[in-house]
Amino acid sequence: MNAGDGDARELSVGQAAQWALYRLAPESSTSNVVTAVLAEPVLDTDVLRAALVAVQARHDLLRSRFAETGAGPVRLVDPVGPGTIEVRDVGDVDDEALRALIHAVGEQPLRLEQDGPLRAVLLRRGTDCALVLVIHHIATDGLSQYLIWRDLGDAYRAGRGGDTVDWPTRPSYDEFVAREQAMLAGPRRAELAEHWARTCAGATAATLPTDRPRSATRSYRGASVARMLPDDVARQVRATAATLAVTPFTVLLGVFEALLHRCTGQGEFTIGCPVSLRRGRALREVVGMLVNPVVLRSSFTPGTTFATAIAAAGRQLSEGVARAAYPFPLVQAARRDRDPLVRVTITLLTRQHGDTLSDTSNGFVGHRVRQLVVPYDEGQFDLAVTVHQLPDLSLRTEFNYDRDLLDRATVERLFDQYLALLGAACADPAATVADARLAGDIDERMLLELGMS
After folding, report:
1. Which residue ranges does the record assign to the Condensation domain (predicted)?
2. DSSP string computed for 41-61
3. How far apart (Å, rounded) are the C-alpha atoms in residues 205 and 344?
4. How far apart are the C-alpha atoms of 156 and 150, rounded to whole Å?
5. d(CA 426, CA 206)
């Protein structure tokens, strides 16, 4: 493949980093973003294919392929999206077997050079079906998933009525790439680079104790533990946030950093927090990779209270978000020792109003549709925590982890410890982090023996 096979476009810095990761491990599925819905009755395949073509026509990243040229990586935009949907009749399998089939679809690597960043698979049962979209992170982010499903539902609705969907605009990822290039070519670059150099000088990434030694090379094999936060905990988090005049996510972040301090024994460490880069109306409708991890640096002493940790987390977050335009790959590349700045991440995803994935009154007219929860982003980091804020303000939390390093039982215990610290922080924000009970009696004794409690 060469650049002459399509309309060549430049990549963003984040995309270039994803491309480099892909080239290192092309058979890995760790960057696959997987979403799925269950629809009853079965979706009309012809209408669905036409709807997918329409969505690809609107969002050019979804009809792009990627290639390495002498001048570096590029994306090649095809004039028309193929609208390819693989249809599999799976018989009357039960829901558990269907979930296993969806997981298997997500585990298949995407071939960015040949097929591009999108795979659509329809798993048909007798009276219903699961529509699975697998999109490489090089072409999407959390909000993009909402946009794609919304537009797919709109196009399907129009097709069922014999019409074609007429969107007012054709947003392009090129707008973001141009903005990023302008920033990197201007005086703002030096200002941001200096800030991140100060923030990261002498920093050490939060490094959890592992069940197995860290290998020199990564396999990017991941798994996840997902739970709903108990309703009483979610209410306590909101109440504590109001008392401390911060956001609920700031409470979750500050307590998570406290957990890392307790589990690692590190008094100072860095983690990553992916934040949105959608600044201004022009980028609101763009599908693409529009997130950037910002580095948060924490510091704990024996006297640090939960309130102090939460306030510090709020300052870290506000300072990082204000300077999020500077690409994280450039921050990491400036490290002389090349040690990773981020081994652990935490982020918040807020469900959008009218989200087709969760609101059965929108999209795919004539069908009852509900979202199927499919964890993704597994194995990119030692631990990646994603907090999903749902429309009813409930919180679903995923702990995605590198299973070469951690066992599921270890991550389950870590989740329990996080809940314990959340309870302690909300009960008494003035309590010191070091004195809070971390786990049950048996786990506590084990941690004391390791010097970790």
Report:
1. 11-448
2. S---HHHHHHHHHHHHHH-GG
3. 8
4. 10
5. 24
The residues pairing with 402 across neighbouring beta strands, listed in sequence order, are 222
- For residue 444, what is the enclosing H or E element? helix 441-450
Average of pLDDT values for 138-159? 93
Residue linked to tokens 């141009």: 178
Distance between CA atoms of 422 and 24, rounded to whole angstroms?
Answer: 38
Q: For Cα atoms 192, 196, 197, give the angle at the middle one, nearest 5 degrees.
A: 110
Distance set, CA 248 to CA 243, 270, 303, 310 (Å): 11, 21, 23, 10
Distances from the Cα of 183 to the Cα of 74, 152, 332, angstroms: 20, 33, 18
Tokens representing residue 108 in the block? 């298949």
Spatial separation of the C-alpha atoms in residues 54 and 36, rounded to whole Å:
19
CA distance 453 to 447: 5
Distance CA 173, CA 75 (A): 11
Which 3 state secondary structure label does DSSP give 178? helix
The pair of structure tokens assigned to 384 is: 């990646």
Average pLDDT over residues 239-248: 97
Residues 21, 38: Cα–Cα separation, whole Å: 32
Q: For residues 54 and 6, give the distance between their C-alpha atoms in angstroms, rounded to a whole number.
A: 19
Assess contact for 270 and 328: CB atoms under 8 A: no
What domains are defined for the chain?
A: 3-174 (3.30.559.10), 187-351+375-450 (3.30.559.30)
Tokens of 326: 């500077």
Torsion of the alpha carbons at 276, 278, 280 and 281, rounded to the nearest 10: -130
How do residues 332-369 score in pLDDT, each as one tens digit?
999 887 789 999 999 998 865 444 454 444 578 889 99
Residue with tokens 């002459």: 4
Structural element, H or E, at residue 240: helix 231-244
376-410 as b/e, with b when 16 or more CB fall inside 10 Å? Answer: bbbbbbbbbbbbbbeeeeebbbbbbbbbbbbeeeb
**How many helices (H) and strands (E) are present in the chain, helices listed first?**
12, 14
Residue range 418-448, pLDDT digits in tens: 999 999 999 999 999 999 998 654 455 445 5
Residue 305 DSSP one-character state? B
